[in-house]
């Protein structure tokens, strides 16, 4: 790259000029991402219907100031002027005497506003209009805004105002009402990537598509930020721009490290995810940065799971879009939504925790064990019939998990041998068993297969993850005289604990499998399990918004109170 180049304003300089300035748009046709605004302003000039004041709003680096200069150039550097080119170049450099650029951040007092008003009365030196471009106008004080009000409403005939701001809500409504407002949108990542590729071609620099696409995403809708990052990378390069250089020069998260976390979560591997998380932190990332990177990756997987390899939505090239889509097949959409929310929740907790690393590691393990937690969370949906994990369109992995949780009877107290797995799994849940079709004859008939049939009927009636989790925590004891007796398995897992405190949760399953007249009892050791008062209104638990919240955050509903009760407690 030569230092002695002709820059974008037509001036030759012996010093290096950053890419964001060198490749700044020079005319309406060169504007990227704000074409509709450019077209509107150009038509207004052609029809001689320009307003006296404009307000350009948008985040940093989206082209507000560039558009203001291009608009001013189109208004003042007209073909009838002998110095058209010189005037135009001076305007684009911000050096023209008739186009005054003011930084409101450093000139925000009422005295500055009064000086502006006094100078506005002077005629332009060589162009038709005297144009004031006030950048970051929201930084003006209230007194300065009030001083400008009258001039903004009825300016001299030769004056135009172009106000630029990143925070339009801080601009007084009385000022906004005197302007034509244009909102600049963030520039799509693909448009930024395309422009950067054109810049690299002109700079004669080779770069991997993955590098360009990632920088365009890091730009977050700002063309200036994207070109600034690209500038840093070119300075650090000694050849082709590749992913390793990008991560080293900009201190970015390694996508390979992030994918190692994702793969460990997909495989349900707590040890693997802890190791991958440690490697992220060993690379110098803060816990917050690591979680942000993981959340972004899960978001990309979620989007790919929903819409497929959509390059524009994912903001990546075709090869990476295909890779993300393939990796997303290991999850279902609900799980990915939950993982994104979980990253955010862990990040929030680590900010105020004295043991941030412990919270981080626990969160990683929680992600890896998301399927087990999902089974426990299903118990909270008392009576929920939907089988979310095995709906049509669910992932193969999710269906495999459901198959893995198929409950099989355990022999107890001389009960007949348990049927083979294939005998239970081959029996469709939709096929009525003798117990389901006619429970009373089953209770009256004393056959040697009666206990086995009773348990098989329960297994067939298990429609949801909650039902399967309940049965997995129990073993068959006996079935005599319309009385079903089950036992809680030894152990302290969450499902068994739930049954110990809420045996009535089993009632809908017994009713579906054996009939409404069948009584049941759950034994813990030799003692019957009795229901405990929970302080929970079951009608509240069944509300859709409550069930969705519990499912998303794996929450437990421990108490419900009316608004009056809550108000009384607050007053007390």
- Strand-pairing-aware structural class: alpha/beta
What is the percentage of strand-forming residues? 5-15%
The total strand number stands at 11
Mean residue pLDDT? 78
> What is the alpha-carbon Rg in Å?
34 Å
Number of helices: 30
- Overall geometry comes to elongated
Strand order of the largest sheet: 4-5-6-3-7
CATH structural class of the largest domain: Alpha Beta
**Could you give me the name of the CATH homologous superfamily of the largest domain?**
P-loop containing nucleotide triphosphate hydrolases
CATH topology of the largest domain: Rossmann fold
Reported CATH architecture of the largest domain:
3-Layer(aba) Sandwich
Low-confidence stretches: 1-13, 382-449
Any descriptors?
Rossmann fold; single chain; elongated; five-stranded parallel sheet; alpha/beta
Structure commentary:
The chain has 572 residues and is an alpha/beta fold. It has four domains: 5-183, Rossmann fold (3-Layer(aba) Sandwich), CATH 3.40.50.300; 189-250, Helicase, Ruva Protein, domain 3, CATH 1.10.8.60; 255-368, Zinc Finger, Delta Prime, domain 3 (Up-down Bundle), CATH 1.20.272.10; 409-532, no CATH class. 52% of the residues lie in helices and 9% in strands. The chain has 30 helices and eleven strands. Helix 5 (110-120) links the parallel strand 4 (99-103) and strand 5. The longest helix is centred in the middle third of the chain and has 21 residues, at 287-307. Residues 1-13 and 382-449 have low confidence and may be disordered.
């Amino acid at each position: 790259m030569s230092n002695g180049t002709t820059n974008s304003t037509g001036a030759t300089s012996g010093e290096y000029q950053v890419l964001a300035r060198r490749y700044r748009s020079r005319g309406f046709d060169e504007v990227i991402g704000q074409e509709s605004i450019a077209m509107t302003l150009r038509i207004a000039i052609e029809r001689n219907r320009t307003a006296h004041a404009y307000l350009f709003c948008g985040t940093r680096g989206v082209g507000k100031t560039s558009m203001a200069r291009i608009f001013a150039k189109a208004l003042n550097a007209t073909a009838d002027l002998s110095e058209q080119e010189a005037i135009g170049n001076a305007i684009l450099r911000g050096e023209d005497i008739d186009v005054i650029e003011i930084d409101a951040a450093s000139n925000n007092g009422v005295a500055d506003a009064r000086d502006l008003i006094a100078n506005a009365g002077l005629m332009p030196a060589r162009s038709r209009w005297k144009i004031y471009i006030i950048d970051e106008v929201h930084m003006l004080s209230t007194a300065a805004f009030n001083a400008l009000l009258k001039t903004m409403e009825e300016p001299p005939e030769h004056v135009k105002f172009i106000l630029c701001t990143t925070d339009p809500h801080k601009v007084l409504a009385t000022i906004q009402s005197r302007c034509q407002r244009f909102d600049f949108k963030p520039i799509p990542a693909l448009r930024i990537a395309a422009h950067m590729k054109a810049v690299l071609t002109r700079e004669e620099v080779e770069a991997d598509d993955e590098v360009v696409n990632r920088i365009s995403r890091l730009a977050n809708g700002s063309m200036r930020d994207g070109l600034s990052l690209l500038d840093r990378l070119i300075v650090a390069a000694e050849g082709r721009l590749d992913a390793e250089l990008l991560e080293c020069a900009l201190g970015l998260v390694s996508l390979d490290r992030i994918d190692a976390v994702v793969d460990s979560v997909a495989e349900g591997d707590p040890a693997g995810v802890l190791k991958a998380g440690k490697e992220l932190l060993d690379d110098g990332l803060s816990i917050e940065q690591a979680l942000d990177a993981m959340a972004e990756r899960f978001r990309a997987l979620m989007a790919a799971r929903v819409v497929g390899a959509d390059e524009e939505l994912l903001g990546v090239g075709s090869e990476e879009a295909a890779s993300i889509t393939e990796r997303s097949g290991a999850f279902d959409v609900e799980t990915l939504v939950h993982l994104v929310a979980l990253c955010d929740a862990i990040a929030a907790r680590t900010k105020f925790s004295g043991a941030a690393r412990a919270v981080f590691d626990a969160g990683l393990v929680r992600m890896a064990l998301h399927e087990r937690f999902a089974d426990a969370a299903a118990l909270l949906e008392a009576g929920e019939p939907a089988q979310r994990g095995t709906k049509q369109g669910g992932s193969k992995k999710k269906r495999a998990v459901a198959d893995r949780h198929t409950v099989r009877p355990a022999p107890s107290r001389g009960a007949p041998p348990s049927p083979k797995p294939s005998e239970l799994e081959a029996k469709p849940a939709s096929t009525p068993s003798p117990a389901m079709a006619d429970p009373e004859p089953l209770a009256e008939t004393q056959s040697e297969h009666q206990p086995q049939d009773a348990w098989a009927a329960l297994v067939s009636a298990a429609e949801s993850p909650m039902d399967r989790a309940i049965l997995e925590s129990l073993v068959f004891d006996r079935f005599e005289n319309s009385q079903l007796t089950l036992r809680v398995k030894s152990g302290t897992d969450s499902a068994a604990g739930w049954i110990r405190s809420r045996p009535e949760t089993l009632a809908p399953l017994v009713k579906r499998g054996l009939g409404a007249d069948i009584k049941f009892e759950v034994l813990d050791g030799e003692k019957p399990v009795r229901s405990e008062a929970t302080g929970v209104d079951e009608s509240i638990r069944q509300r859709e918004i409550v069930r969705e919240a519990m499912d998303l955050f794996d929450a437990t509903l421990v108490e419900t109170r009316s608004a009056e009760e809550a108000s009384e407690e607050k007053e007390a």
